[in-house]
């Protein structure tokens, strides 16, 4: 699957990639994600200070700025964190913008699976079903591994189900037992200072934080500069469920309560919810990493093999 946008200029075609680096572009297209070395120790320290400043905002288990009921807080955090994303947006990506930077936190699990995040795709945030994909940016402020809730990914799964997704839309892996998916997952330890950028259609999740300290992450949805924002509202009370499609303004995801219908917005479309389901054969056909290979990496100043 080619994740590019085609532009016409005086009779010739120009292809705009997602990444400025061809190796990273190839990694995204094949596996659905790229890991980069991005933040210095000083930048991580500054981000940790900001995280501590908002300590009273981080709840038990899993919490995210994007899901906060306090809209002023969400807008403030976005403004505070946006300068830290500039190197990624300016040097690594080709024409992307951040729409709702914030923190994603896992407190230490008190019991069982508290804070675990099931395998899922992120919701639709931009009107690009066939164009360049929206991305999720995820950068831990501490080293993360299996103990404290690092990411688990299903490489290549961004190609399985690219239908638009509302909050609450069932995933296309619903009919496959978790133990049948498990062999295809990778666990992705990361160091503080690294960031992963992944296609929002990539299946990902994480286990509880069983470490002694919270697991803070800087997270942000990134969308192509050429596309508008989109929000889908699900109507589960209807049979079958239907989905309202709303074209929304640039600050929408900083001022809207996710999961509720947009106030004052008229849907541009109303359609049945997508019912595509993946199969075990689809999983078996996904690209597999070579032995010892887990990510594609790039420093700001050049290639960096991992």
Short description:
It contains six helices and 18 strands. With 306 residues, it is an alpha+beta fold.
How would you sum up this structure, described in words?
The protein has 306 residues and is α+β, with helices and mostly antiparallel strands. The chain is built from six helices and 18 strands. It has helices spanning 22-31, 41-53, 71-92, 178-181, 252-255, 280-284, and strands spanning 5-9, 12-16, 33-37, 62-64, 96-98, 102-106, 117-120, 135-140, 151-153, 186-188, 194-199, 204-206, 215-224, 229-235, 242-248, 269-272, 298-299, 302-303. The strands form five sheets. Strands 3, 4, 5, 6, 8, 11 and 13 form a seven-stranded antiparallel beta sheet that branches. A hairpin with a 2-residue loop joins strand 1 and strand 2 (12-16). It is globular.
- Biggest pleated-sheet summary: 7 strands, antiparallel
- Give start-end ranges of low-pLDDT stretches: 1-10, 298-306
**Beta strands, count:** 18
Q: Give Rg in angstroms.
A: 19 Å
Tell me the overall shape.
globular
Please work out how many helical segments DSSP would assign. 6
> What is the H-and-E element order?
EEHEHEHEEEEEHEEEEEEHEHEE
- The average pLDDT value, as a whole number, equals 88
Give the amount of beta strand, in percent: 25-35%
Q: Look at the helices and sheets and give the structural class.
A: alpha+beta
- Approximate helicity band: 10-25%
Report how far the terminal alpha carbons are from each other: 24 Å
